[in-house]
Amino acid sequence: MSALRGAARLAVALAVLGTTACASSARRDADRRLASGDAAGAAAAYDALLQSPPGAGEDLLLFQAATAHALAGLDAGDPARGSATLEALVSRFPESPYRPAAQLLLRLQDRLAAPSPSVAGAPAAGASLAATGGTDALGELRQTLVDLHRQVDRLVAEAREREAKLRALRDEVEMLKAIDLGPPAEPPH
After folding, report:
1. Ramachandran angles phi, psi of 56, nearest 5°
2. Quick one: pLDDT at residue 172?
3. What are the sequence ranges of the domains in the chain?
């Protein structure tokens, strides 16, 4: 369960990291609740925000809502709601930079929810797992966390690179507009 909480904390970090300058105080309040560990409060706040008309950053809002629901689900919430929100993000925003992380979280949830064949199928294997303290499962979860962290780092780097390219293109377009709209050149004498 500790490794699952670690994965959830990493997802929170991604969700909060991805927040750009939020326009509404309700969004900032939901973000603060999520960052401070009030997952149930954050989930309710994000759900309220999702009821408003869609706008820019809705993919991030869905990712943050799913993260809040997943964290709330660790204690006593509704993890199925978090999964449904992640699935909505994946299906509605195929080009979102949060899509790969959402897909990875869905796979992690499926893996954690599925009974382990070694424990379900053979009492001896279950005894072996108990004797090792579940180190194999813990190691696997740690590796999944490392993979998720690498993927988050890659996504953040890609997003920054795209933003830099867009800024350069905007600057070039503005420069070309200035040339086209500038005063006509005098003919040479």
Report:
1. -60, 140
2. 93
3. 2-115+127-181
